[in-house]
Amino acid sequence: MKLAAVDIGSNAIRLQITNVTHYEGKVTFKKLEYLRFPLRLGMDVFHVQKISDKNRRKFVKLMKAFKLLIDLYEVDDYMVCATSAMRESTNGKDIVEEVRQDVGLKIQVIDGNREAELINLALWSYIDEKSYLHIDVGGGSTELNIYINKEKVASKSFKIGSVRALDDNIPLSVWNSMNKFISENITKKDKITCIGTGGNINKIFELSKPSKSKRFLDFSKIEEIQAYIASFSYEDRINKLNLNPDRADVIIPASKIYLAAMAAASSKKMIVPDVGLKDGLMNVLYERNKIKK
């Protein structure tokens, strides 16, 4: 069984095609294709509330390319989900309809809570009876989920994202709202471990040169890597640190969001599991096709 997931984010758009096999009672997910295209829809939307004609044309071309790959791999089922940039764009619905008619792909524009739910599907193996704050930082929004004793006790989406924060134009009231949400749902007796998802925390983790067996970052290590990256110019981040151009500028504001949430939770440790929305989509696809069979 072949499945495809497309994550239309504010900073980039991702396609993953996975082959699912059953052998001797074991289910195996093998990645066949993964593509990340740096189309920054959020830069349009967070400044002028709509996707520009230029980016609209590029987006439709990209969807055509993804549709060709989905067809070539003879995918059995797929899901395409768009997050904050598309849902906040005044012409988002028109673009979704254009892709449906001209390309043949159905795009679901999901809200922050649904986005968090989908990502959480890929996190369950990391959740136990302890207390956790899951922080997912995207280009346009940050989703927070609090788990205590394997139960989600609170969840909320905030308009705080790495692209949105590039110009430091996030109102103080939004930051205060995020801090208030954390303080109201975490007591002082809760010893919180954070779980960080998103491309920027994965890159920070990679730059920390971790041991192969542990996927943890300390608060102080994130601060250290943040300062290290900030010591380079934008051009040097690309050429010396080997960051993608669309990662080199947003990684600093993204790190500030992770650190702010950790500080509000008085958490000193973060798990970095390297999962995201596309992995949650794969879970949904597998479950609904398993039922069919």
TrEMBL record:
Entries under InterPro entries matching the protein: ATPase_NBD, GppA/Ppx_hydrolase, Ppx_GppA_N
Pfam families for the chain: Ppx-GppA
Ranges of residues in domain Ppx/GppA phosphatase N-terminal: 29-282
SUPFAM superfamilies: Actin-like ATPase domain (SSF53067)
Protein name per UniProt: Exopolyphosphatase
Coiled coil stretches, renumbered: none
CDD domains: ASKHA_NBD_PPX_GppA
